[in-house]
Design brief:
The protein is mainly beta. The chain contains one helix and 22 strands. The N terminus is likely disordered. It holds the Pfam family DM13.
Amino acid sequence: MGTDVVDELLVPERVSINTRLQSIAVGESYQLMAEFFNRFGEMEASMISWSSSNPEVISVDDTGLAEAIMPGSVRIRASYNGAADSIDVAAASETQVGNNQRMGRFMGVNDYSVNGQFVLEEVDDKLRLTFLQNFSSSNGPGLFVFLSNNERSVTGGFEMGRLKSNSGMQVYETSIDNVRLFSYNHVLVYCKPFGAVFGAGRLEN
């Protein structure tokens, strides 16, 4: 029985490229970064391997530095320990970074009621999480907001702060030096005293 509970808390290992780069200006370079998360959703230091589907168009070195050599498009891949992430990048007339916003919707967990939509976005040097006006949550002691890679656990996650209100619009911010837009795939409302997830929502790409 105990083993079954542990198994439920495991998630697939994943690699996440932090920036959804769309294009690099020919003759210029762009530093890509990626993170590896283990089966507990925890970030681990790792030697990410980088590759380009066509190095003659855009090359990428062992550190993730991509250089646009001639017009065209490629798929850049970051991998580690069997897990991988990839982005399609064009070598063009200018450098453009794509999506800087992700959205999701809460669902209640463990018989608690949590509803409403949220938006996670990079704004200047901040990562901003906004609960929209339709947000509502069951009452509980010690409720906190977490980013996590596991909808059932905050292990390996990032704490955004104490829940400000059980309903309505509210904003949480942290520096992008602490966490990036694509580091985590879930937003959780978590009760610290009970060690219980009240609500979870998946961030869509």
